[in-house]
Amino acid sequence: MELEAIERRHLAATIADRLRQLIVSGRFHPGDRLPSERELASVLKVTRTTLREALKILETLRFVTIRQGDGVRVRDYLKSANIEILADLLFRGGRPDPVILANILEARECFGRTLVRLAATRARPEQVQSYRDLVARLERAVREGPSSLQVADLDCFQALAEATQNLVFVFVLNAIRAIYLRHREVFQSLYRDPEGVAAAHRALLTAIEARDADQAEHAASALLKIPADLRVEGTGAIEEADHGEG
Question: What CATH number labels 2-77?
Answer without folding.
Answer: 1.10.10.10
